[in-house]
Amino acid sequence: MTQFDALLFDFDGVLIESEASGNRHIADYLTGIGYPTTPEQSMARFMGLAGKDFLAAIEAHIGAPVPPDFQAARRAEDERCLLEGIEEVAGATAFVRALPASLPRAVVSSSRVRWIATHLEHLGLRSAFGDHLYSGAEHVTNGKPAPDLYLYAADKLGVAIERCAIIEDSPVGATGAVASGAFVIGLVAGAHCAPNHGNRLRAIGVDAVAHDFNEVSRLLDL
Question: What is the C-alpha to C-alpha distance for residues 213 and 209, in angstroms, rounded to an integer?
Answer without folding.
Answer: 11
